[in-house]
Amino acid sequence: MSTPCLEIESLSATLANGVRVLRSVSLTVEPGEVRALVGESGAGKSMIGKAVLGVLPPSIRVVEGRITLEGTDLGNLSPRASRALIGARTALIPQDPLTALNPSRRIGPQMTDRLVRILGWDSAKADRRIRKLLDDVRIREPDRVLRCYPHELSGGMRQRVLIAAAFAAEPRLIVADEPTTALDVTVQKQILRLIAELQREHGTAILFVTHDLGVVAKISQKVTVLYAGKVVEQADTAALFAAPQHAYTRALMAATPRYTDPMASLRPVDEAVLAGLSAEIATADRNWKPNTKGSGHD
Amino acid sequence: MILQRTLTRLLTMIATLFGVAVVVFVVIRIAPGDPIAMMLPPGASQADIDRLRALYGLDKSLIEQFVIWLSGVVHGDFGTSISLRQNVLGLVLGRLPATLELSIFALLIALAIGLPLAVLGARERGTAVEAGIDVANGVALSIPDFLWGLVLILLFGVLMPVFEISGRVSPQLDLPFTTNFYLFESIVRLRFDLTANLLGHMFMPALALALPLAAIIAQLLKQSLKELLTLDYMVLARVKGFSETQVILREGLKNAALPTLTLVGVQFTFLIGGTVIVERLFSYEGLGNMAIDAVVNRDLPLIQGIVLVFALLFVVINLAVDMAYALLNPRLRHG
Question: Which terminus, N or C, of chain A has the lesser number of Cβ atoms within 10 Å?
Answer without folding.
Answer: N
